[in-house]
Amino acid sequence: DADRIQAIVSNAVYYIVAPAARTRSRTLEVDASVLAVISELVRMPGTVKAWRSTVADIFGDGRFFSMPLAKAKCWQPIILALMTQDKERVVDLLARVGASAGAANIFANRELEMLSRALNLRRLSFTIFAGDQDAFLTQLPLIQEKLVDLLRSAVSEVLHAEVYLCLRVLLVRFSARNLANFWPVLMTELMRLYDQVATEPESIQQSADGRNLLLSTLKLLDLLVLIQPEDFQINEWLFVTDTIDAVYPADDFQPETLLDSLSTTFQKNSKNASSHSHVAAAAASGELKRRLQIGRLRAVSSVAELVPFLNCVSQNAFEGNYSDKPIDFEDVDMCLLADMFDSDAAGNGQQLTVDGGASDV
């Protein structure tokens, strides 16, 4: 009966799941067998009260995004179950993304605060990523309001980079018609950032967080060029050459797009702007599907590493518009998942963890 099931689930959580999550290791390691138990528990009706607190503690652990990709995929239905059983959880998560302790506490550590907000924003990104198309449509206006505020605010580069990661998740988890209100602010902020980078390239080159932010914006453009939303096509010419000159430039052709300007600037300020093997050409003849060009690039030690992408993005965008190859959305999902999880299995990207245990989710 229901009472016996509830008792069994409570015991399983208390004696199996909870101890497995209390490890003191640098990364969060939950055994595969325990993960299988959690997966089964969240699927059982009427047992939410027994497991939600423990699962929320695990999701709120600062080490959550340090796990391997293989286990990260297993957590998707678990976190989705947690965040959908009470819609207010997403609202609470958004509140923590926007919360600033600086105004109330003069002793607040701004760097730690920004890292904590970035981590909460990544939790939001993973929650949306775990859902189906338009699964969080009712919360989208609040999500949009929060992301727009962050884009316009003087927050850290780490937090700004997380905003662009979240926007990439929104692009693949919401219908294009539901994202129409994002475009004016997004285009304005991208133009402002690229103008700033072109004017002061040294500030980006010398800052790891700055390079990470630039890479995050270029990954967003890489995704936009691949999926070609109608609202983006209106402004595409600002970023990439969308004419035949992208493939067969005339002798007197002078590219004037924002990405061309960045490429020219980086080549002038870099001793080595040669091609790098991890920047893939999307239009490779052997590919059966169209893929992201820099989707698997986790970090750059020099802006010169971005030059090959900047030089070929216009050509790949133009050829992609006339290609009959389908988009490899499975690969897009894997690239997004790899960017959210910082384990060695996922790559060598920037670690986004906060020491000091769990936070409420």
Give the overall form: elongated
Helix content: 55-70%
Beta-strand portion reads under 5%
- Number of DSSP helical runs: 15
Largest sheet: none
Q: Quick one: how many beta strands? A: 0
- Mean pLDDT across all amino acids: 83
Uncertain stretches of 5 or more adjacent residues: 272-278, 280-285, 344-349
Following the backbone from N to C, one meets helices and strands in this order, namely: HHHHHHHHHHHHHHH
Q: How far do the termini sit from each other?
A: 31 Å
Structural class determined from secondary elements: mainly alpha
Radius of gyration: 22 Å
Description:
There is one protein chain. Helix content is 58%, strand content 0%. It has a domain of 86 residues. With 361 residues, the chain is an all-alpha fold. About 5% of the residues have low confidence. The chain contains 15 helices and no strands. The longest helix has 21 residues.
Summarize the structure.
This protein is an all-alpha fold and 361 residues long. Helix content is 58%, strand content 0%.
Keywords, separated by commas or semicolons:
0% strand, single chain, 15 helices, 58% helix, mainly alpha, 361 residues
How would you summarize the topology of this molecule?
Blueprint: H1 2-20, H2 32-41, H3 48-59, H4 69-84, H5 88-98, H6 110-130, H7 140-152, H8 157-173, H9 183-199, H10 201-205, H11 208-227, H12 230-239, H13 258-268, H14 307-321, H15 329-340
Helix pairs in contact: 1-2, 2-4, 4-6, 5-6, 5-7, 6-8, 8-11, 8-15, 9-13, 13-14
